[in-house]
Amino acid sequence: xxxxxxxxxxxxxxxxxxxxxxxxxxxxxxxxxxxxxxxxxxxxxxxxxxxxxxxxxxxxxxxxxxxxxxxxxxxxxxxxxxxxxxxxxxxxxxxxxxxxxxxxxxxxxxxxxxxxxxxxxxxxxxxxxxxxxxxxxxxxxxxxxxxxxxxxxxxxxxxxxxxxxxxxxxxxxxxxxxxxxxxxxxxxxxxxxxxxxxxxxxxxxxxxxxxxxxxxxxxxxxxxxxxxxxxxxxxxxxxxxxxxxxxxxxxxxxxxxxxxxxxxxxxxxxxxxxxxxxxxxxxxxxxxxxxxxxxxxxxxxxxxxxxxxxxxxxxxxxxxxxxxxxxxxxxxxxxxxx
Length: 338
Hints:
Elements: H1 2-6, E1 10-14, H2 22-30, E2 35-38, H3 41-50, E3 55-58, H4 67-73, E4 76-79, H5 82-94, E5 99-106, E6 114-115, H6 119-126, E7 132-138, H7 151-168, E8 174-178, H8 183-187, E9 197-200, H9 202-206, E10 208-209, E11 214-215, E12 226-237, E13 263-269, E14 281-283, E15 289-293, E16 298-301, E17 314-319, H10 321-329
Parallel strand pairs: 1-2, 1-9, 2-3, 3-4, 4-5, 5-6, 5-7, 7-8, 8-9
Antiparallel strand pairs: 10-11, 12-13, 12-17, 13-16, 14-17, 15-16
């Protein structure tokens, strides 16, 4: 990520989209990635097997049951609970390791993080724990409630670092300012110098400015494609016939009264809600529209079938980030690297 390097910002790649696939991880490491973040310890285990020298970062507060594996496979973890950090300290002693910690601070999105007014007290309680090294403070924005990163929030995060360093005479190497959604602030020169670390996933894979939803110059936006096979293609009524209840998703579909008595071609695809939510994929053909989906099939309204789609043909979709994540996590969908 050239914009990060030009601004002296270190960064790690968030790999959870790859779902621990060894082949994909090898390809990324061949590109020179030296720090990988993930929310599944099993994925970090794969990364360490591929290359033990890669710095691995666990990017959510760890559960107690996973502390042994966490210390074994993660070099760094994001934390916000004293009791958990104490357990990590004890386990790190047993494994004769020093585990690095990034303290997460709540800054408005109401996901993980210590409340700012408790930060000094919290830091005081943990910075002397053995086999623990506090290497950073960080925050998470936009992931839960859509609260956007701003210059003011980044300045506030930097001030927390300065406060800790002044109070305890301890250096905090990283101020981890956010994820892909924060990158547009770099282009606007709205990232204060104190913010020097990012966790990047979606922008790396999809090449989009997550504020404007437009492509970032020089990046690819079509890295992932989904192809679904047509298993039935028939001209049918546009509106169901009979008493309407709820479908398998618990929904009661509504229909346009103007469509009564009309027909169109409906293509049934060999993929369903078990694999993907239709809100996370977009047909490349503009005149194809979703009619609905069940656990194993998606139904498309393709109008008069002017493109002459046939049984066995594949319909092409562009997935968004959550769509690609679900596709790559599905054991039922064949994956190919081209």
